[in-house]
Design a protein that fits this description.
single chain; alpha+beta; five-stranded antiparallel sheet
Length: 622
């Protein structure tokens, strides 16, 4: 019995000895890995438990008007970040995070999953403009949710009520498809970029350079001290050519309407005002737009997200007659004395075409044709010109191509040709189609900025300056190859310019179609346009909202002075029904321009003058 107990004791001693050796071997192996084999790896893991790297977010540059008045600035706020490496089981923590921060659980989960391919060490922005309650939640749950941090960030503050929304644009997180674009090749997931407007066009100038700070935290994840900090660098300011006084006048005049307004200086290409209606509130995008708000914007049939000043491609109506007049005079198709008899209609290629005045205009020459916008006169001119000559001049005068304005997504309009129709519609050009093109209908499409550019350039003697919203000299500080001050010259004789601009002067001041635009003591010329959306019979047959959607679009392009203008303004009213509704809007913008100039000079507005000398060629032209 004793021998058996002795042997059992010996087994126990041997087991303990072997166990001790095994434990020692495990400890020795761990020591070897920690101190000799992989010390850097384990040191990094230890540092992650006590050191956090947090971004120092850079503010975007301020945006001001031409006089230095602030348009877009920023305000301090807090953004909540999710540090994925701090979570052992992030998936199970998502519901609690969503509840505590008043977020939708599914949206938060989808947001995190969309960014799962991003490097694990990069923080994910999960809530902007955090409240004090959000910050309190983070502090009170550091034990169970150590991967939540808040950082101070400068948030974009845009003007209220959608003022200048389409020009300025808005910012938001860079998306996965955008990361594939060359311009965002060096960006990382979650960074804030300009999405539309000037915010997008000059994103590289406006955005700053983020910094980084490293802090030591305790076992509860609370910061106890700082190690080092790389400060952020704020974005560069952007001074626009926009004049806030003119912009305010244009915005007020367009209130409650649908369409766009562009005011520019044809001498320089500087855009003084740009409005699109309806508008939207970019402040909703500055944080993260709600799904319902986005749906409301995208479902709106009036397209509030479209910048109609540069994207609305519509038939220009009778404003096109200015372009046609230049083409006819310069090609020798007509002279100042060429006339046609208007009895209210005319027949071409076996079909009758009406003039907008039922009783007709009688014997009509160019001046009278422009002043009273006689359709029959321009039908005849168009037929004599032919589509090839008309298209040649129209394209060289600025139609059918982008103006090059420094905004993304500008549309190019359309000046039809037989080659275009054959390629696009697989059909030949019919001779009778020139009749509708001659009055700016048919396939012709133009944007408001194109008409301001084209007619402003014609009134300037053939000098077409690229429209721009930022001063070229300032952009060249960051983009030396920028060509915003580009000028194109297309030769137009003095006699042609005089005849056409004299007609435009008469449109406003000689009882023409824009008599409502007349301003006492101010030289203003222009051209009205009414473009059909559907036939009159169809409009009469429709009722309710659909009838409204088929009403004519209204245009007016004004230049002041009428020769060598300082300002050219285009107004488009979608379904405005009559150009008489567009003329007062241009009048108010022109009035605001001259009244401000009078205040600044302390002088008196110059009386209207019928003509002025042709300007000298500006340096190198293309």
């Amino acid at each position: 019995m004793l021998d058996r107990d002795t042997k059992f004791a010996q087994y126990k001693i041997a087991f303990v000895q072997y166990l001790t050796v095994a434990i020692f071997f495990v400890l020795a192996s761990g020591f070897w890995r920690l101190q000799i084999s992989q010390p850097d790896y384990y040191r990094e893991l230890a540092d992650q438990n006590r050191i956090k790297s947090l971004p120092v977010l850079a503010p975007r540059g301020r945006i001001t008007d031409r006089d230095g008045r602030t348009i877009v600035e920023h305000y301090p706020s807090f953004t909540i970040l999710l540090l994925r490496e701090q979570f052992k089981d992030l998936e199970s923590a998502i519901p609690k995070i969503a509840e505590g921060l008043d977020l939708d659980t599914n949206e938060l989960r989808n947001h995190i999953h969309r960014l799962r391919s991003a490097p694990h060490y990069e923080p994910i922005r999960i809530k902007e403009d955090a409240t004090l309650a959000d910050l309190a939640f983070i502090e009170s749950h550091r034990d169970e949710l150590p991967g939540l941090e808040h950082v101070e960030e400068s948030r974009r503050l845009y003007p209220r009520d959608g003022f200048m929304a389409h020009v300025i644009g808005y910012v938001g997180e860079v998306s996965e498809p955008e990361l594939d674009l060359p311009e965002f090749a060096n960006f990382r997931t979650g960074q804030i970029i300009g999405k539309t407007g000037l915010e997008r066009q000059y994103n590289d100038i406006l955005m700053g350079q983020d910094g980084m700070r490293r802090v030591i935290v305790n076992n509860r994840g609370k910061e106890v001290s700082r190690l080092d900090e790389l400060p952020s660098k704020g974005g560069n300011p952007l001074r626009l050519t926009i004049d806030l006084d003119l912009q305010a006048a244009a915005e007020a005049a367009m209130e409650g309407k649908t369409g766009g307004v562009v005011a520019l200086d044809p001498r320089t290409g500087e855009i003084l005002a740009m409005v699109s209606r309806p508008t939207f509130d970019p402040n909703k995008f500055a944080v993260r737009i709600l799904r319902q708000d986005w749906k409301d914007l995208t479902d709106d049939p009036n397209h509030p997200l479209m910048n109609k000043a540069i994207q609305a491609q519509l038939a220009p109506g009778s404003t096109f007659k200015i372009v046609e007049s230049v083409a006819a005079l310069e090609s020798g198709t007509i002279t100042e004395d060429t006339g046609f008899n208007c009895v209210g209609s005319a027949t071409f290629y076996g079909r009758s075409y009406k003039c907008h005045t039922k009783g007709g205009h009688g014997h009509t020459t160019l001046h009278r044709g422009i002043v009273f916008s006689c359709d029959v006169f321009f039908y005849n001119v168009g037929v004599k010109l032919g589509i090839d000559k008309l298209a040649y001049y129209a394209m060289h005068l600025g139609l059918g191509a982008k103006t090059g304005v420094d905004l993304p997504s500008e549309e190019e309009g359309l000046m039809p040709t037989p080659a275009w129709k054959l390629k696009t519609l697989r059909d030949k050009w019919y001779a009778g189609e020139i009749v509708s093109v001659a009055i700016g209908q048919g396939y012709v499409l133009a944007t408001p900025i194109q008409l301001a550019y084209a007619i402003g350039g014609i009134a300037s003697g053939g000098y077409f300056r690229r429209p721009h919203l930022v001063f070229p000299s300032e952009v060249k500080q960051w983009r030396p190859n920028a060509d915003l001050d580009h000028t194109t010259y297309f030769p137009i004789s003095d006699d042609t310019v005089e005849q056409v601009t004299s007609g435009m002067y008469g449109v406003v001041n000689e009882g023409g179609t824009a008599a409502r635009a007349r301003l006492v003591g101010i030289d203003l010329g222009g051209k009205t346009g009414t473009a059909q959306v559907a036939s009159n019979d169809l409009v009469k047959a429709m009722k309710g909202n659909k009838e409204m959607d088929l009403r004519d679009n209204a245009w007016f392009v004004g230049v002041s002075p009428h020769r060598n203008p300082e300002i050219a303004v285009t107004c488009l009213l979608e379904h405005g029904e009559s150009s008489a509704n567009a003329t007062p809007i241009v009048r108010e913008v022109v009035r605001a321009y001259w009244e401000k100039k009078q205040r600044q000079s302390g002088g008196v507005i110059q009386a209207a003058k019928p003509s002025s000398p042709k300007p000298q060629p500006p340096g190198v032209l293309n």
